[in-house]
Amino acid sequence: MNLKKKINSLLFAGNITKQPLMKNIEFKIHNSLSNTNEVMNNTFWMGVYPALQKPHLDYMFDKISEFIKSKK
């Protein structure tokens, strides 16, 4: 979570075995999970929430744009 920019993220996708909640849970892995690792490591996720309004979306767009411009 980036408190400075008031952006929060909760990602529950990709390789669930890498999620913090799995730290103390016993589980079996039957394959390499390469596809789930690909999703987890190389996908850009944007959450949705029904109460988001245009100012919220504009704010997200602005922050994402700032980030992309800072990487050029």
The coarse overall form would be elongated
Rounded radius of gyration (Å): 16 Å
Compressed to H and E, one letter per element, the order equals HH
* DSSP summary, beta strand count: 0
Strand content: under 5%
Mean pLDDT: 83
Residue windows where pLDDT falls under 50 for at least 5 positions: none
Largest sheet: none
Report on this model:
The chain has 72 residues and is mostly helical. The chain has one domain (16-70). The chain is 36% helix and 0% strand.
List its salient traits.
mainly alpha, 2 helices, 36% helix, 0% strand, 72 residues
Summarize the structure in short.
This protein has about 70 residues and is mainly α. The chain contains two helices and no strands.
Topology:
Elements: H1 34-42, H2 54-70
